[in-house]
Design goal:
It is a single chain. Helices cover 3% and strands 58% of the residues. With 130 residues, it is mainly beta. It has one domain. Strands 2-4-5-6-7 form a 5-stranded mixed beta barrel. It is globular and about 55 Å long. The relative contact order is 0.24.
Length: 130
Amino acid sequence: MSRVLDCVVTQLKTDQPILGEVSGGIITLTGTLALLVRPLTAETLKAYVKLDVEVPLSTQLFYFCLMKTRSSETTSTHRGLVLAKAEAKPEADGVGYMSTYIRVGVFVSTCQDSMGCKLDRTEEVIVNIC
């Protein structure tokens, strides 16, 4: 459900180019992105996602689906990243915005095929994750 379009890594030491430490990087992916509607409490949120860092409840979070698998004949499971928006930059063509996100966690969501899933109804987008 997603593809890698580009990957740029900034190496910490240039004398170890293959297995050396990095100081940063950006991966550009295409896939489906959906707003994560947050529950009222942080404890309830833990039932849906696994966050790697504490994120204020006021922070807007997004699901970015990496894969979809068939759980049974009637259910599907989506797996992916939980992202927080970092910034938005105009695209090269000046028509839209390519957004940059920070990965803050992961999610697993199982849906009944008869009810559909929010991630199945979203358009493909391009995101940068730093």
